[in-house]
Amino acid sequence: MVQEGKPRSEGIHVTDTEGERIPITHLSQVAAVICLGYAALPFLHPPLESPVLSLPGFLLILPVSLSSLPAVWVTLLVISGMDWILQEREDPLPLRSRVVHWPLPALVAWALSVPLGTLQVGLQWWLIFGLGSGLLIAVMAAEYVAAGRVGAGQFWAYITLTAASFALFLILAVTLRATGTRLYLQWLVLVPAIMLIVLRHLSLRLTERWAWEWAAVVGLLMVQISTGLHYLPLKPLSYGLTLTGLAYALTSLAGALEEGRPWRSAWVEPVVMLSVLLLLAVVLER
């Protein structure tokens, strides 16, 4: 029963705040081991025998190196660490609910291993290592908050996960362009990444409803867009900003349409963000 004269929202606010406390000790332990795994990547460059797929008119070579092994290990470590942190909640979640919060941190962990495993150790490597590790920790913390009850923390988690997702996509696009990765290999990396980002973004925006059809549509459009941009003489950063701007615009438009917003307002945010990123890409191309 609710006592007279006491606002009902006050109790809800206190409960939400307590339920969103992040287990700093567990998170710091997971982060320390993850950083140790990333630190080992530059020392594991000797290539293994790459598998070759011969098709009529095509010869597909999938580059495999020893750096792939710790990258897989780090990804699995992030998944187990994320699950361990979620089990520390005061209201334990069943396995089916915890699985929802695994893919995005795992994608961030795997994506960061791409530049950290290919670049030489230097200022750029340390910059990616520092910013990337902070990004991964922020994503894990945001997923922990997103697993709680709807409250003030949910908005923070939504913003953090959205920004981190597209920052991750930008890192992937720039790295693949800078290393001269073949087009079909770019598809194998960028298309699954953007599909997962679209699914997670829309599930947060639409309250845990998974829009698989939009993920497939955006993935197919990314294949076409990345193919066209691949043959343009763009610098890696300009290429990444253009591709990320288009990916964000499509994802944001899908969310607005799923929410039932009219066209006259649904296009505003996608067009504004796309214009900003395209303008930045043009400036950096000079």
TrEMBL record:
Q: Give the residue spans that cross the bilayer.
A: 27-45, 57-79, 125-146, 155-178, 184-202, 214-232, 238-257, 266-284
Tell me the first and last residues of the signal peptide.
Answer: none
Give the record's keywords alphabetically.
Answer: Membrane, Transmembrane, Transmembrane helix
Tell whether RNA-binding is among the UniProt keywords.
no
- Which protein is depicted? Uncharacterized protein
Q: Which organism is it from?
A: Thermanaerothrix solaris
